[in-house]
Amino acid sequence: MKTLTTQVCIIGAGPSGLLLGQLLNDIGVDTIILERSSLDHVLSRVRAGVLEQGMVALLERAGVGERMHSQGMVHGGFAITHENDFHRIDLDRLTGGKTVMVYGQTEVTKDLVERRAATGGVTHYEASSVDLHDFDGDTPHVTCRIGGEDVRVECKYIAGCDGFHGASRRSVPESAIRTFEKVYPFGWLGIMSDVPPVSHELIYASHSRGFALCSMRSMSRSRHYIQCDAGDSVEAWSDEQFWSELRRRLPPEIAETLTIGPSFEKTIAPLRSFVAEPMRFGNLFLVGDAAHIVPPTGAKGLNLAASDVNYLFEGLRGYFLEGDASLLDAYSKRALSRVWKAVRFSWWMTTMLHRFPNQTPFEARILEAELAYTLESEATKAALAENYVGLPY
Ligand code: RFL
Ligand code: PHB
């Protein structure tokens, strides 16, 4: 068995693990990242696209702002359509000058991977059988297999950044953890295609046939989603069927200008809300999707991962650089307070914009009134905008 030693062992090289690793690296705190998949696989995943200003600031601080600022797109608003009506949410005006950055998670990950390599950070890809030990005691360590060799990583703290299906949360005894979950009775079928986006801003479409979203990665690459049945399979949807269904959910004047083309990625994501409490167990901290999941409607998952990283980074910096553990002790409370507000916002957007099977006529009318009121009132639009650009850290 080979033994490695570090200050913080990070499980998972997704955006949470890489961002935390870089921020710590830059202040001289030593980290080792253990990632189950290959680097190629990590860089091939297509996920989020909308970054809040808090996350943009953290990425700048981690030294990866340059490509984001040159290739990402600053959006001062987005649209919500309701059947054939079009409403613009002017984020800039409603929030007093705040905006979001449209820049793909895949690109964020790539920038962080490159920066870690350039600054000498250690990441072990294809680390299998990752197992966490004694995080409640004095000798926290992680064991795994890397390149056919058994490895033991000894550390002071473990950061569980290994996503919803990772090993970290599962290694906590059930009696020590409380979970909250809501599974929505539909999914999102998403495609990526090299066609220009239908509009220069995102369009969230609420329609009697179901929800749809027109998003983008650049002015020549578009990302579209449609609400689909929970049990649907990707094979059941040809590109033609996808585009035709999307068109039907958009107001005609928008549908007419939609450019279609072959998809080069097509996946179905289930929609769920999930929170695990607390987010700290002794010397183990859960971060990002390892601790919570939100449905993508509010564009909050990746951004929540970033705010967790911010709180944990502040705590670890206090401990390692100043010998002060107070912010580390406050991690779970600070993170969860922001997490629940984003869980609420994501649930609200999802409920208001989707069609639910088995909805009673009463519930359907209430949700119609909710959407109509939200789009009519300056006060509710301001609340929507404030949450969409991201609550303060
Ligand atoms: P990740 O990205 O899942 O990374 C976890 C990493 O851990 C590795 N891993 C392990 N490593 C070692 N040992 C194990 N046992 C391991 N088990 C797993 C995995 O291989 C992986 O590399 O979690 P992280 O870093 O917390 O990041 C979270 C975000 O990825 C996620 O919240 C967002 O993608 C959610 N999301 C969106 N968030 C937004 O803020 N804005 C959006 O617009 C947005 N759109 C989306 C989304 C998620 C989607 N899907 C597919 C779920 C759109 C979609 C379709
Ligand atoms: C995306 O571009 O993938 C995206 C954008 C906004 C969302 C969800 C996903 O709310």
Placed side by side, the strands forming the largest sheet appear as: 7-6-15-16-17-14-18-21
Task: Tell me the Rg in angstroms.
Answer: 21 Å
Give the CATH superfamily of the domain at 2-53 and 104-180 and 272-348: FAD/NAD(P)-binding domain
Query: How many DSSP-defined strands?
Result: 21
Report the structural category: alpha/beta
What features would you describe in this structure?
This protein is an alpha/beta fold and 393 residues long. The chain has a domain at 2-53 and 104-180 and 272-348: FAD/NAD(P)-binding domain, CATH 3.50.50.60. The chain has helices at residues 15-26, 39-44, 53-61, 65-71, 91-94, 105-118, 167-170, 239-248, 252-255, 301-322, 326-329, 331-353, 361-376, 378-389, and strands spanning 2-5, 8-11, 31-34, 50-51, 73-75, 78-82, 85-89, 100-102, 122-124, 127-133, 141-146, 149-154, 157-160, 178-193, 203-206, 212-218, 221-229, 263-277, 280-281, 284-286, 292-293. Helix content is 37%, strand content 29%. The chain binds 8-demethyl-8-dimethylamino-flavin-adenine-dinucleotide (RFL) and P-hydroxybenzoic acid. P-hydroxybenzoic acid (PHB) binds next to loops. P-hydroxybenzoic acid binds at residues 48-50, 202, 215, 223, 296-297, 299.
Could you name the key traits of this structure?
393 residues; alpha/beta; 6-stranded mixed β-sheet; globular; binds 8-demethyl-8-dimethylamino-flavin-adenine-dinucleotide; binds P-hydroxybenzoic acid
Structure summarized in a few sentences:
The chain has 393 residues and is an alpha/beta fold.
